[in-house]
From TrEMBL:
Residues 75-342 form the G-protein coupled receptors family 1 profile domain. This is G-protein coupled receptors family 1 profile domain-containing protein. Belongs to the G-protein coupled receptor 1 family. Keywords: Cell membrane, Disulfide bond, G-protein coupled receptor, Membrane, Receptor, Transducer, Transmembrane, Transmembrane helix.
Length: 381
């Protein structure tokens, strides 16, 4: 989601052209016409143009930013390969994880490069209006796809811990329906409204004055209704839903842990059944805990952007370029964080990542052979 905090400068006497952004209002015989006066009134309290960096600064910033999509593609690629090659990871739950990794890879391939391009060119856009709208649409869509996947994962964990019998009936067919929903629904708040300029309804004068059609600029400016509706669907409602699911999971985990301790204190006669139930509970709870950490990371990374996204249209697009870019790239970095969180907080992913990075797959070592070898080693230590 490209920032909206990039508008024309306030001084109508300054006729300079600044990186694709209008920094002046047209004058005819030193007298402003009515249209120019109107534009001056509209843009007076709006944020100024983005800063113009020298070549060295632009190259340094670009070099740093380039590492983000590269590492994102690598990390999420490892996640997908790990699930494909590691039997313990081939579960219904991880179907959502793989699909989420693909979405994060799409962010790195189809969204980040355009933002880096604009940063390198001092916000000058020479790729045309269609590609500008396409990049904005993919940006909005992929963010929404990611949080919808997290919502589905929250449902999966909730069923596994709070409704285990219902979770057992979660078939591949239902998973495919949920994944289809995650990928198709975001189109209705991204491509359809953006290509029909619904986000510009009511602010046509702002667009015309701040971003003249003949200038080489690509910005994603939204009106108040679009900002609220998009933010609610793409972030606030799913976050509230995920928080509610995690609260229910936590309460159910406490209850089940109490029941297990009660059975242990009473002396359970069916030792095998009790141990199996305890092991299953620990496994599901650890998975839910990992998911909670991933959801928390997503919320923290995207929260600044969605706060600014709602506030800025309300205050007349007053927020400057720098806060927008910081909030935007903090959200992008979330696509890089998920593989790291899997590695540190999920034992199965940790083992699979180590196996892949040590190239045991290349040597023909199967995952269950590797697990058996580790088990024997632990027993002999």
């Amino acid at each position: 989601m490209n920032s909206v905090g990039n508008v024309s400068a306030h001084d109508a006497d300054d006729q300079a052209y600044n990186g694709g952004y209008s920094t002046a209002l047209p004058a005819v015989d030193t007298t402003l016409n009515l249209s120019s006066i109107r534009c001056l009134e509209i843009t007076r309290d709006m944020a100024g143009p983005p800063p113009q960096y020298d070549d060295l600064t632009r190259y340094i910033i670009t070099t740093i930013l380039v590492f983000v999509p590269i590492l994102t593609i690598f990390g999420n690629g490892v996640v997908v390969i790990a699930v494909i090659t590691h039997k313990k990871l081939q579960t219904i739950t991880n179907a959502f994880v793989v699909s989420l990794a693909i979405a994060d890879t799409c962010v790195a391939l189809c969204v980040m490069p355009f933002s880096i391009y604009q940063q390198l060119n001092n916000k000058v856009w020479l790729l045309g209006k269609i590609l500008c709208k396409l990049s904005a649409s993919v940006d909005v869509m992929m963010c929404t796809v990611s949080i919808f996947h997290l919502s589905c994962l929250a449902i999966d964990r909730y069923l596994a811990i709070c409704r285990p019998f219902l979770h057992g009936r979660l078939t591949i067919r239902w998973v495919c329906v949920m994944l289809t929903f995650c990928w198709v629904t975001p189109i209705f708040i991204s491509f359809i409204p953006i290509f029909n300029d619904w986000n510009h309804i009511g602010i046509e004068d702002v667009i015309k004055c701040a971003f003249p059609a003949d200038e080489n600029v690509c910005t994603f400016v939204v009106n108040v209704p679009f900002a609220f509706i998009c933010s609610l669907i793409a972030f606030y409602i799913p976050v509230v839903f995920m928080i509610a699911c995690n609260v229910r999971i936590y309460m159910a985990a406490i209850k089940q842990a109490h029941q297990i301790r009660t059975l242990e204190a009473a002396g359970n006669h069916n030792h095998y059944s009790h141990c199996r139930r305890k092991s299953k509970f620990k496994q599901e709870y650890k998975a839910a805990k990992t998911l909670g950490i991933i959801m928390g990371c997503f919320s923290v990374c995207w929260f600044p952007f969605f706060i600014i996204n709602v506030i800025d249209p309300l205050i007349g697009y007053y927020i400057n370029y720098e806060p927008w870019q910081i909030a935007l790239w903090l959200g992008y970095i979330n696509s890089l964080m998920n593989p790291i969180l899997y590695y540190y907080f999920n034992k199965n992913f940790y083992n699979a990542f180590r196996r892949l990075l040590s190239c045991k797959v290349c040597k023909g070592v199967r995952d269950y052979d590797d697990d058996s070898l580790n088990t024997v080693t632990q027993m002999t230590d």
